[in-house]
Design a protein that fits this description.
This protein is α/β, with parallel strands linked by helices and 272 residues long. The longest helix is centred in the middle third of the chain and has 22 residues. It has eleven helices and eight strands. The chain has a single domain, classed as TIM Barrel.
């Protein structure tokens, strides 16, 4: 598996810092945080971004992300954002755009949630196909997110039925939302774009800011990794945290620790 670093983990660092520090730590891929990328494109331009990625030998895996893509008050705005990010992705060689479902303000049954999600993803898929870009649909394990379980996200992706639309599975959202390893066993590994890896100190009232480095919490990550291996997943593993304690540290220190923890977890899992 290839190891990747997500720019959310060092949110206060620039994209240039993320790229350099990720390379120094040993990562092969990087997930680019959208606001950092847009800022650098304005101040430095396309060529500088592409050159920096090339010089550091990093594959740009995803752009994160189109937020609240479903149940939006303005679908046209979300579709326009999808087109903008897909164009950027093509210019700098990014493989996929992360698409995040919206939150609910009222109780809806799964049929309505699936219908809305499939409709939006099909429209975005048509846009992304013009640019040769994939979409990664990432469910969030929060109770008020419209799609908070792996099984529901997988059903949506299945119904979309497009080869450029897949899943993003995040260990925080997987376990906090109550998804089970048996659900993961039912997934076609070829449809997983990337797996976000992080740990948690608890499983109740989880917030994004609770995330900690892989191996520092209570999540059964080794069992999770073994299940990934069982279904034949050999794609990217990416460290993604939203913890302010890491944001306050030097970016290169955080990327170094993230790489060591992720590589160590992979090694131990493969050995057993």
């Amino acid at each position: 598996m290839k190891l990747a670093f997500n720019g959310a983990t060092t949110i206060r660092a620039s994209l240039a810092e993320d790229i350099v520090c990720a390379r120094l730590a040993g990562f092969e891929m990087i997930e680019i945080w959208k606001s950092k990328l847009l800022r650098m494109l304005i101040t430095e331009g396309w060529d500088v971004v592409k050159q920096l990625l090339k010089q550091n030998g990093l594959k740009p895996l995803t752009i994160n992300s189109i937020e609240r893509a479903t149940f939006s008050e303005n679908r046209k705005e979300k579709l326009a954002e999808c087109e903008e990010l897909c164009q950027i992705a093509t210019e700098i060689g990014v493989e996929a755009i992360v698409v995040v479902p919206g939150f609910l303000t009222e109780t809806l049954d799964e049929t309505a949630i699936v219908r809305e999600s499939v409709s939006v993803l099909k429209e975005m898929s048509n846009i992304a196909r013009r640019f040769g870009v994939r979409l990664g649909f990432e469910f969030l394990g929060f109770s008020n997110c419209s799609v908070n379980r792996l099984s529901l996200a997988w059903e949506i992706v299945r119904q979309v039925g497009e080869d450029n639309v897949g899943l993003i599975v995040d260990t925080c959202h997987f376990f906090a939302g109550g998804s089970q390893l048996e659900e993961l066993e039912e997934i076609d590994a070829r449809k997983i774009v990337v797996v976000h890896v992080n740990d948690l100190p608890k499983l109740e009232d989880v917030k994004d800011s609770d995330r900690i480095m892989p191996g520092d919490g209570i999540l059964p990550l080794r069992d999770f990794f073994r299940t990934l291996k069982k279904i034949g997943y050999d794609g990217p593993l990416s460290v993604e945290l939203f913890n302010e304690d890491y944001w306050n540290k030097p970016a290169c220190e955080t990327t170094r620790v993230a790489f060591e923890r992720l590589r160590g977890l992979c090694y131990v899992t493969e050995e057993r």
